[in-house]
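Re: the 169-residue chain
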Amino acid sequence: VKTHLQAQTLSAVAVGHQHNHESISGAFESIYKQHGVAGLWRGVTGAVPRVAVGSAAQLATFTSAKDWVCERQWFREGSWAAVLAGGMVSGVAVAVTMTPFDVVSTRLYNQPVDADGTGKLYRGFLDCILQISSKEGLLGLYKGIGAVYLRLGPHTVLSLFFWDELRKM
């Protein structure tokens, strides 16, 4: 529903398929009537790996990055600056690992579907990756990485900062 509404715009500037929902409740109703409950879950095959990969990158890089800046004596161990630096490095790792999954999820969510709910452009997660890679190159999987970092970078830094502080209690 969110992706349908975010992609919606005037036909003169529209890019991609337009769903033409008039409200959130209208979008839920329209999708449910046309495709049932399964229609509300379309694209989840790209979203689940996205979250798994992003969380793994976040947790795997934070402590290592924090320790690395302390070993080089850029920041004192246990300082909030070391935690913020570790969070920033982790934020970059999260953006780099999650962006391909964001691109695939968005394409799967927003593609037009036929009467039985089957996507008209992609057969699924792997087909979407292969089509993007072959038609747009590997960098096609990284469209919007700047925006992804601007959203996930601060979230990652703050989440890890508060997590690290709460661990000390």
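The helical segments are 2-7, 24-40, 44-71, 80-110, 125-136, 145-167.
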